[in-house]
Structure formats: structure tokens, C-alpha cells
Amino acid sequence: MNITLNNGITMPALGLGVFQSPPEETTAAVQSALSAGYRHIDTAAAYGNEREVGEGIRASGLPRQEVFIETKVWVSDYGYDQTLHAWEKATGKLGVDYLDLFILHQPAPDRFGQVIAAYKALETLLADGRVRAIGVSNFMPHHLEKLLEATDVVPAVNQIELHPYFSQAEVQAANARHGILTQAWSPIGGITFYPGWGEERRNVMEDPTLASIADKHGKSAAQVMLRWHLQEGRSAIPKSTNPARIAQNFDVFGFELDAEDLTAIDALDTGVRNGPDPDVIREDRFSMVIPEA
Ligand code: A2P
Fold it and tell me: Does ligand 1 have an atom closer than 6 angstroms to the CB of 220?
């Protein structure tokens, strides 16, 4: 299932996520995904596994143009020249000569001048054909407003934390208003159960409403959540390094949630963020240096 972005490029709606995939497991995960039918992989400079993503794609034997590759510029590479160089690093590690989608990983509001300069570099890369689409991640509506005022190309995608317990209706609405596709990170709520991300969080995978909808359709809670994203028009990038779960997460095209199911899932939103607040400056993270290719 493809989604057409605001510049006419098509992107497979469902992709494999590799956040927290250890580099030594990433090549195999990418190969599993491509053999299960995925044609979209989402990585990031900050994940430290772009090289292994590239290896997995090459090992699949698929032609480059059949796989949609999305990656992200890290904050320490913001600025015009730095972001042009970040493209060199990313493509060098991935072993490709163009990217399908290149996005800014964080709004980093304390250095918004550099954010704008980084985005202008993305516009240059787009104009040169070195990337096919550009976008952002973790941008709240106020960040989008500031970006749009200072730049020319409307982002194709805004990738945000989005699962049934945190569905960010106002961010989705702002994206839609501007013609920006909402892409869900932690689409099956991994952020609600990753160890070490804070205790006492409710695990969305164990939600009773999702369990009953899953039972009704003979599917898993993860499959129901992915179907929910797709039917509401979003892109989603579930992470797994387990071949059976990678395949399960792609087996979501043979059933349909009804309107009642969608409404019930929409009603699970708690309004509580699980991941980092995009307005909080995390200098220890932001200053992380991305190695050369
Ligand atoms: P694993 O890699 O061992 O499969 P998210 O993308 O929402 O952040 O979720 C990722 C988390 O969900 C990872 O911990 C992943 O573990 C786990 N996971 C992925 N797919 C499934 C699934 N179908 N059922 C249960 N857990 C899953």
C-alpha cells in the first residue's frame, strides 16, 4: 500500500523501523523485512546502524530503486554546510547515491536558526535530486509554523510519537492542514514498554480494548494498531528484529477494522507523552557526534 507525498513521490505506507536495533542484528532484520514484502526502511544517523541497513538492502538483491530509504539528520549536524555533509555521511554509510526521504530528527528549538539552515540544505539536496523528498520529525505545530515561515518547501512528512495511548490529534490536524503526511514512530507503542524508559507506564500492547478487537478479527494487538494507522491514512514504521514479528507486522493487508473499532482505538488516547518532549533541550544527546562514513 502506497501513499503519495505532497510532491508526488510515492512511499510504501508501512516500513521497517530500526530504532534500538543493535547494528549486529540490523542487517538480518532488514533482509527479513525485504523478504517478507517490506519496501521501506526507516533509519537515522543517530541510530548508529545506517551501514547495516545498507548491507541488508544489498544482501536482498533488490534493485536500489525498489526500496524506499528514509533517514534522519542528527542535531549536531544542523547548519547548512553541516547538513549537506550529513547527506555525504548517510549515503556513504548506506552505500547509495540518493535518499528517498531525508528528515530533520528533532526541532531543537534553542538553535532554531541552525534548524532552518539545515532545512535549507535539505531543499538544496531536493533540488539537486540527491533526495526525493524532505521532511521533519518530532515537530509540534508551533515548530512547523516557524519552519514554514522561513523556508520554501513544505515538509512531505512529520514523523512523531503516535500509538493508541498518545495519538497527538492536534499535531495530526496541523500536519493535515499543511499537506504534511503524519508518520507514526513507536506505532505499536514500543515506547510504552521499552525497558529503561521509565517505570509504571501502561503497556499499550496489553490494552484490553485492543485485545478484544484483536480477538474479533483473529489478529494480534500489534496488527490491529498497524491497521488503525493505515486506515486513518498514516505511515507507520514498526520496529522488530524478530523475523516472525517482522512478518506478522506486514501481514496487515487482509483484514479491515470497522468504524466502531477505529473510534474505540481513538478513545484510548491518554494525552501523555512517553518519549522525549521535543521542546526539552537534551544537550547530552544533541551534542552526540555522528561519525564520518
Ligand atoms: P522485537 O524487536 O523483539 O520484536 P515500536 O516500533 O512501536 O517502538 O515497537 C517496537 C517494540 O515492539 C520492540 O520491543 C519489538 O521487539 C516489539 N514488537 C515488534 N513487533 C511486535 C509484535 N508483533 N508483537 C509484540 N511485540 C512486538
Answer: yes
CB 262: neighbour CB atoms within 10 A? 15
Q: How far is CA 14 from the centre of its chain?
A: 10
- Confidence label for 199 from pLDDT (cuts 50, 70 and 90): low
Instruction: Determine which residue's CA is closest to atom 4 belonging to ligand 1.
Output: 240
Helix axes 208-217, 259-266, angle to 10 degrees: 160
What does pLDDT average to over the chain? 97
- pTM of the prediction? 0.98
Q: Which atom of ligand 1 is nearest to the CA of 221?
A: 24
| C-beta separation of 171 from 161 below 8 A | no
The rounded Å distance from CA 188 to ligand 1 centre is 7
Please name the residue that has the C-alpha cell 531536493. Answer: 126
Domain ranges, ordered by start, for the chain: 2-286
3-state secondary structure of 291: coil
For the segment 260-277, the average pLDDT, to the nearest whole number, is 97
- Per CATH, the number for 2-286 is 3.20.20.100
Can you say whether residue 162 is alpha, beta or left, with left for phi > 0 and alpha for psi between -120 and 50 degrees?
beta
